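Notes taken during the Thursday session

The instructor put the following on the board and asked us to keep it in front of us for the whole hour. The protein is Rhomboid family intramembrane serine protease. We were told not to look anything up and to reason only from what is written here. First, the residues (470 in total):
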Amino acid sequence: MLIIPIQNKPDWRRPPLVCFALILANLLVYVLYQSGDEARWQAAEEYYFSSTLPELDEARFYEFVDTEKPEWRTLAQGAGEEFMYEQLLWSREFHDWLVPQLQQEGGEAQQWLAQRQEFAQLRDSLSSFAYGLTPADPTLKGLFGHMFLHGGWDHLLGNMVFLLLFGLSVELALGAAWFLGLYLLGGLAAAGLHMGVEAGSLMPMIGASGAVSAVMGMFVAVYGIRRLRFFYTLGFAFGEFSAPALMVLPLWLGKEVFGYFFGSENIAYWAHFGGLVAGFVCTMALIRVRPSRDIHVEEDLPPTPEQLALARIESLQNHGKLLEAGQAASSALKQHPESLPLIEKSIELTGLAPESEAHHRAWLALFALAKLPQQDFAQIAAGVETYQGKVQEPRALTPRVCLVLAQRAAREKQWALVEVLLQRLQQKQQRHPLMARLANGVVEHYRRCGDEERARQALDFARALQPSAV
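Then, after some discussion, the predicted structure tokens were revealed:
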């Protein structure tokens, strides 16, 4: 089972450098260090078979199976030498059982002991033994080193993809220092739970999965009850669903518990479980003390009436029903007069008949948005120029609309547009107290620009204006 978010978008203006650094560190460790494991293992294997160890170890191995590992008898009888030599080379349990006996025997056994210790030193130079986490014999270098080791390209790339998917948003929300600290803390917590469950095991654990699971828990804590879209696979089935981020945590935890009882034996499921819980709990505690940074979340909410109307209009348009689409746009615009997407769609659909009343009304709806302080004026200002160039008589630019537009243009310091609108008002023989003040603003603008000729013309225009009602 796989469940991953498919809609959280990071803010690339603040690149998540720690997340990228962790990915780079894991890649470099694998390419520059772990790539030498093959040569190290070959040297250990060649030493083993060139020595007298195979003949000496064989008899003691069956004694070890009879006394310590009776469950191996069937495997030893069925697989024969292949199973035996696999254990002689890899099993640290056999080595740790044999060495004390050889130390006690003394005499000729000392040469056997020396060969065994030399082979163990060569074998333990492998990355998984040198820096892996062994529950029966944990070391400081193993506690941290195992987070940067991987068993193959598929293991490495899988972990790095998940780190990228979840880490980008989490680092931007918590900050680089907290993200790195909780990443390492989550990895240590994952290692702690694994050691508790697998206490006494001599099998080393490697992989960033525990720390990456902690990042997944951190992700859930950061997004909380906000609804996100997720992609899932379950066997051969796959699809999408939307849910609060908090709801996927028990699914992830349940997956690890199920995997422990019914999955592969070579996966540290409890490390994943521990990382998820540690990442979630630590981040929740951090957020209570220090709120996370603002992050952009596109919540998967039901469509609004405005969105439904726009979708219906676009559907009619895509099916070539332009008349019906135009009528639907006009009707929707009456219900949502401040919807810029609907206004734009109405202008587009009525543009086939630029002199129609519907087209002028669509432009009038756009110009009316100038009264809204939160509305970006740049698009409205560009619309005035487009509208005047597209129609023979811009009927939507009524005297009242021109005054509203001129006032907003003055606040936005778009004096060229103010001058154009004042000229239209003059052509319509309009007079209003605001016109003189706006004209004086145009005069000051040209003076600041050093254009005295245009400043003089604007001053003459301002003096000619006499206040009267529109």
